[in-house]
Automatic annotation (TrEMBL):
Pfam families: 4HBT_2. InterPro entries: 4-hydroxybenzoyl-CoA_TE, HotDog_dom_sf, YbgC/YbaW. The keyword NADP does not apply. Gene3D superfamilies: Hotdog Thioesterase (3.10.129.10). It comes from Weizmannia acidilactici. GO terms for molecular function: fatty acyl-CoA hydrolase activity. This is Thioesterase.
Amino acid sequence: MHETQLRPRFCETDALGHINNASYFVYFEDARLQFFESIGASVEIKDFNIILASAKCDFISQAFYNQVLAVRTGVSKIGNSSCELAHEILDAETGRLIARGKAVIVFFDFDAQKSRPIPEDIRGILEKHLEKTV
């Protein structure tokens, strides 16, 4: 799985003192972009050809301001024009699971305004990152 680390900012906390639920989706988005960049897919706006079709998060335990978090991303399914990515957020020091999420990514033709098949070169790379236990 691809892994990135982050430290939640104070502005990402809520009145209860823990990380606000909406922030987890931002962390997943950042991790997805880093994952795609790491496999050689362009994340430049002029080349962008993917859209988010679905996003889900299960909140397992709390996270707090300035806590070092590890966000892991792996491929859990590959279809014709879409793939599903699985995310985990862990406490980077203890390994405690904080959240689990999934995102369905669709390869998209913006001119035709419809999905398009996953390019073969990207499909091959995604298959190499397919996780059996995510």
